[in-house]
Amino acid sequence: MIPFRGLELHGKAFWSHRSIGQALETVLRYGLNALILHESDFTTEFLYPRPLFDPDATWEGAPVRRGENALQNNQAYMRDILKKARRAGVEVWIENVELTFPDELLERKPELLVDGKVCPTHPYWVEFLREKYLDLAKTYPGIRGLIVSAGSPEGRAALSQKKCGCPRCSATSLASWYEDLLSAIHGALASQEMGMAVREFSYTANHQEAIAEAMARLPDDLISCVKVTPHDFYPTFPDNPLIAKESRNARWIEYDTMGQFYGWGAFPCLMGADIERRLVHAGRHGVEGVVLRVEWERVNDWWSLDTPNRMNLHAAAAAARGSPMAAAALFSDWLDEESIDIASETTALVPAFLEDTWNIM
């Protein structure tokens, strides 16, 4: 059995009370134990942070943060999620990309811009990240931990983007940049006993190697979180080489059950055979956690919980618990969950079709 088993919301579903309720219910039904809230710029929507922007300050022509009423509303909403999860006995982790920051920061610190572009190696970022994540841990002590992607060029600023051409950026290695950023975040969270996982999301092998190099120099209580395949969730890709790479850090793997690259659930595709093989491979190499994505940030109001691909979430959860399920059992449970009543001959036929869908795709 894999100890950490999380359901990942990666889009707008976590801003819906109904969706949070459904997600928590599914976590419990499938024997998972964590809820992961993932959005690239997530923290800017419910964190000022207070050391930099005083939410109680008197207006001097404008609020300290644009949309401060929405920020306060989101803070109350986040506390409500944490309360619901605590009552259900479910851990909550948040996931985002760094560097990310509110626009108002650039007004406070114009020196962060070089020729109109954000400089990712400016020394201030280390201080900013320490203050930001210390504020996060103190404001939301119910959050169990953070999963952070520092290697992604999808962040608001990253050395891998190669946008800033200043001498400091040119002289800084990716590995040392990752190490500085991750060390600052880890120090803040560790001081408040909040966990931290580093998400290896990279576009090239060189970037992946730089993250691995930085992790080798960072504290061993950090968790390494990797996709089952390199770069993205293409099911035809080989296993991510970092799964088998020797590491002193605990490792988690990520799997997409929504079907971003296999039909989106509009065309059902049962990935049971692939899921079981990937998890067996991960288990063989001592993986201690699995993160199961059910939606994608680029598509609104669409997740695997409302499509036949929900069976992939069920299959992955069962495999992670060490009790793989056959197609017939997955289909039967899905019919019960959806309150669908069909003829017995169809019940016998559909699982055989579902077992072929992965090969067809």
Explain how this protein is built:
The chain has 12 helices and 10 strands. It has helices at 17-29, 68-88, 104-108, 124-139, 167-171, 174-190, 205-217, 241-244, 272-284, 310-320, 327-338, 344-360, and strands at residues 4-9, 34-38, 91-97, 113-114, 117-118, 145-149, 195-200, 223-227, 250-256, 289-293. Strand 9, helix 9 and strand 10 (289-293) form a beta-alpha-beta unit. The model has no long low-confidence stretch (mean pLDDT 95).
- The radius of gyration over CA amounts to 21 Å
**Rounded average pLDDT:** 95
Distance between the termini: 29 Å
Q: Going across the biggest sheet, name each strand in turn.
A: 1-2-3-6-7-8-9-10
N-to-C SSE series?
A: EHEHEHEEHEHHEHEHEHEHHH
| Number of extended strands | 10
Helix-strand makeup class? alpha/beta
Overall outline: globular
Question: Which ranges are low-confidence, i.e. pLDDT below 50, for 5 or more consecutive residues?
Answer: none
Figure out the total of helices: 12
Short key terms for the protein model shown above:
alpha/beta, 8-stranded parallel β-barrel, 10 strands, 361 residues, two-stranded antiparallel sheet
List the SSEs and their pairings:
Blueprint: E1 4-9, H1 17-29, E2 34-38, H2 68-88, E3 91-97, H3 104-108, E4 113-114, E5 117-118, H4 124-139, E6 145-149, H5 167-171, H6 174-190, E7 195-200, H7 205-217, E8 223-227, H8 241-244, E9 250-256, H9 272-284, E10 289-293, H10 310-320, H11 327-338, H12 344-360
Parallel strand pairs: 1-2, 1-10, 2-3, 3-6, 6-7, 7-8, 8-9, 9-10
Antiparallel strand pairs: 4-5
Helix pairs in contact: 1-2, 4-6, 6-7, 9-10, 10-11, 11-12
